[in-house]
Amino acid sequence: xxxxxxxxxxxxxxxxxxxxxxxxxxxxxxxxxxxxxxxxxxxxxxxxxxxxxxxxxxxxxxxxxxxxxxxxxxxxxxxxxxxxxxxxxxxxxxxxxxxxxxxxxxxxxxxxxxxxxxxxxxxxxxxxxxxxxxxxxxxxxxxxxxxxxxxxxxxxxxxxxxxxxxxxxxxxxxxxxxxxxxxxxxxxxxxxxxxxxxxxxxxxxxxxxxxxxxxxxxxxxxxxxxxxxxxxxxxxxxxxxxxxxxxxxxxxxxxxxxxxxxxxxxxxxxxxxxxxxxxxxxxxxxxxxxxxxxxxxxxxxxxxxxxxxxxxxxxxxxxxxxxxxxxxxxxxxxxxxxxxxxxxxxxxxxxxxxxxxxxxxxxxxxxxxxxxxxxxxxxxxxxxxxxxxxxxxxxxxxxxxxxxxxxxxxxxxxxxxxxxxxxxxxxxxxxxxxx
RNA sequence: GGGCUCGUGGUGUAGAGGCCUAACAUGCCUCCCUGUCACGGAGGAGAUCGCCGGUUCGAAUCCGGUCGGGCCCGCCA
Length: 435
Known about the structure:
Blueprint: E1 15-27, E2 32-37, E3 42-47, H1 50-54, E4 64-73, E5 81-92, H2 113-118, H3 120-123, H4 127-149, E6 153-154, E7 160-161, E8 173-176, E9 179-183, H5 188-198, E10 200-208, E11 221-230, H6 235-256, H7 258-263, E12 278-280, H8 281-292, H9 304-318, E13 322-329, E14 344-352, E15 355-361, H10 367-376, H11 387-394, E16 400-406, H12 407-415
Parallel strand pairs: 6-10, 12-13
Antiparallel strand pairs: 1-2, 1-4, 2-3, 4-5, 7-9, 8-9, 10-11, 11-16, 13-14, 14-15, 15-16
The structure holds one RNA strand.
């Protein structure tokens, strides 16, 4: 029976068999220490028999080993226990020298990110690096738990589409048996259609944007959480749902991964306000202009510096890492958004530690108003690409709203990473398609 | 798409016209070492300085182009 690293202490005084990767060698001559890595962590093995250590001659870090020996309580060993008098068996020999050193901290400096992604296969074996992606897995797990508990149905919608009808972002095109297909920039139409069946739906999937953006917050292939809920009372209900979910998920992850987050130098979580506070775009422009003497009052959207400024303000003045920017000017809206009487879009941007992580709008649900808004946006309502979408409205959609939520950005800001790509295993950007 | 920057052994850096036949750290190889945990010590291999062209008696170093990286802005998740 294989014993995992975290279970070693339970086997003190007995013989145990472990399997894992050779992580580190410290050869002192008559006294040799091996560190073995498995999915739970590390085990130290003390090798005094020269014949056993000779089995590793010519083999590199990463060699897969099976080791059987006596488990000894030893306070000098990391973890308080180690294996003595081991018998080594090489399961998979590795003779190629790893290109990077995995037992040491992997550099996340911006100028080293290319090396990081080029050698991802190896650096993901670094314990510290793995923590980012264990935290990422927990974030999406808690999101699913929260939404499932609130009667949301998880759906999967196609990413191969006939053509781009949603508008907005640039899309990728590809050959599809002689026809031209596009990659979905979001599940927007499909999730709204599904409100007509399930009321509450969500999807965690990939979206593709052909925007030539070269920034620390853009990917061409991103992971989005799309939520849509019907029969809402007003925009505030949607803002509250998304805000409360985010708070719940962050608290749960900070609770479960407190040690990991600390070791990654993640910021302390601040969520003192009962609900996520809201400021209108106009208010933020005014506050920012007053505070920085940089006039932004004629901007329609927030500038990246305003996003950072209002987040900083919310953290310091209100004790919260989450803040909403609401009531966007009408020209910022799309044809499927709902507009209020004051001529603003019922749309909220959820900001987390200086970065927009979600857009949270209310949708127009009236069939005739949709037709009108599409026409005034210059769209052809008879277009084949709108038929299924519009028929969902024709056959009855309740008032609904939801969000497009950037999972990669959530992970980035939770951990405190400078670049969204660091929160992604194999990031796709304007220049990178491999590995 | 616009602007600004950076490319030197596997990895991270130093060198900024001749001292470079390119230095240091780490990794790798050989040897020594009985409590290491960034182990320590001795020795060794490993880079024509991204690529192409130019200036110069002489270029890693200056200039032009090109390719690749990074950051900011626009746009957005």
